[in-house]
Amino acid sequence: xxxxxxxxxxxxxxxxxxxxxNTYSVQPxxxxxxxxxxxxxxxxxxxxxxxxxxxxGIKNLTFRDVSKETITLKPKEEKExxxxxxxxxxxxxxxxxxxxxxxxxxxxxxxxKQFILIYTQPKEFKLEQNYPNPFNPTTKIRFTIPDVxxxxxxxxxxxxxxxxxxxxxxxxxxxxxxxxxxEFNATELSSGVYFYRLQSGNFTQTKKxxxxx
Length: 213
Known about the structure:
Immunoglobulin-like; 4-stranded mixed beta sheet; 4-stranded antiparallel beta sheet; 57% strand; Secre_tail; 16 strands; 2 domains; mainly beta
């Protein structure tokens, strides 16, 4: 899935309070998503206001822009404010996050706009390439399990050496649909090529990883 670019518009009317809400679906693990906020000063005077974004209660998003600069708009001026954010890979697909844009002069709230993110369920089984690779001594392995319609799926994630001998079991339990990330620590192993295999229901996939000391 490609990065999301979301455009929202806020028009400043200093004499009224307005409220609006938008809902978007995003996939966990997607980076460099953008929210572009268009702000228009329709008054006859220059306006200075804090950058309009509230992040309270947000657990699954990481914003790149953490500055708190003041925005100044001349009469009739329009500006675009860009926000860059990543969605955590382990975002809980049963939850949602709400971002609130707040137009205020630090005394009165003039306008708010809520932006709701709903996290989509995976649509297919997938075993991703570990990262980093080659690695020393730890690496991360990501996999997804879709809703198979029969409840929890018994899933195993195992590592094998080049001869096919099982080295370690990283996962061996029933898993609901979701996005998962497991850390593999190979401190006790010697350098070489290994394989990791995901089995969940009728799905099986194997990938290669390289331990390089």
